[in-house]
Design a protein that fits this description.
The protein is mainly alpha-helical and about 290 residues long. It is built from 10 helices and 2 strands, in the order ββαααααααααα.
């Protein structure tokens, strides 16, 4: 009965001039009604939940693992697509990253390059060695490759990012170019290293001229990838500064290519027949001295 009521109809007789006369026994009628209570005494509970203190726990701090885990949460398909885009660029790589750079791909690309350089460098040294003696593996190649590739991929982007911040490339330019983050710099340099995987696989050739060609192609592809994607960001600075930065990027990458050539693929069948003190030998000794090999 709480949600069901009655309509009351009162018939007032207008006879004998008595407008106030009402015969409740005969003239009062009751009719069933579908009346429902549209205003309940208690309102339904609200679906809005005020923010709790747990929302503050979603913040990622530099010293927490969750801060670094977010840059490794990427699908294999995304990594492969980014690797292919670095080898065959069709649109700006920063657009492909789409504000979601990762460090998973750059780390494993650099690690793969290191082990392939060690493997093919060892093969190159074996082919150039005298086979009348037992061949001794040079594990300094592994530590040298790790120091070279990890050091270049980790520290050169930091230096570039710092210079961009210093010279004011952080503000949006006239063309609407947004600021490049440090993680994007790491991702850019990390995926630029993917070309060194096929180069390292074929540069153990016993023909020194081919090794020079392979390394030169790897340098051209990776340096072109870097300059093409960094120019929109670097060009926000002054014209003179932007040119210096681009030259520095290319020079640093050329240093990487030269180090790869002389550290891992300088040996050849004719290397033992070269006169001592030649230019190639001097260059190799200089690079090895710089890397402590």
């Amino acid at each position: 009965m709480a949600n069901r009521g009655y309509d009351v109809v009162v018939d007032v007789d207008d006879h004998e001039g008595d407008l106030g006369h009402t015969d409740l026994q005969e003239d009062l009628e009751f009719h069933s009604s579908n009346f429902t209570n549209t205003h309940p005494s208690k309102l339904p509970p609200s679906t809005y939940a005020p923010p709790t203190s747990s929302s503050s726990s979603s913040k990622r701090y530099l010293w927490s693992l969750s801060f670094y885990a977010q840059y490794f949460a990427v699908d294999t398909s995304h990594v492969l697509h980014r690797c292919f885009s670095a080898l065959v660029p069709r649109r700006p790589f920063l657009d492909i990253l789409d504000g979601n750079p990762d460090l998973y791909g750059p780390f494993w690309i650099a690690t793969t390059v290191i082990f392939i350089l060690f493997l093919t460098g060892t093969i190159s040294q074996y082919l150039a060695s005298h086979h009348d003696k037992a061949f001794v593996y040079n594990f300094k190649l592994l530590s040298g490759a790790a120091g070279l590739v990890y050091g270049y991929t980790a520290f050169v982007p930091v230096a570039l990012w710092g210079l961009l911040k210093w010279f004011g490339s952080g503000s949006a330019g006239a063309a609407g170019e947004s600021n490049i983050s440090l993680v994007e710099c790491w991702a850019l340099y990390g995926y630029a290293n993917v070309i060194w995987i096929p180069v390292a696989l074929i540069s153990w050739s016993p023909i020194p001229a081919l090794n020079y060609v392979f390394v030169a192609v790897g340098f051209a592809v990776s340096a072109g990838f870097l300059t093409r994607n960094l120019w929109p960001v670097v060009s926000v600075t002054e014209a003179k500064v932007s040119r210096i930065l681009v030259i520095g990027v290319v020079a640093a990458h050329a240093g990487l290519a030269v180090a790869i050539k002389f550290l891992f693929f300088a040996a050849g069948p004719a290397a033992k027949d070269l006169p001592k003190g030649g230019e190639a030998e001097k260059g190799e000794k200089m690079v090895r001295a710089l890397l402590g090999m």
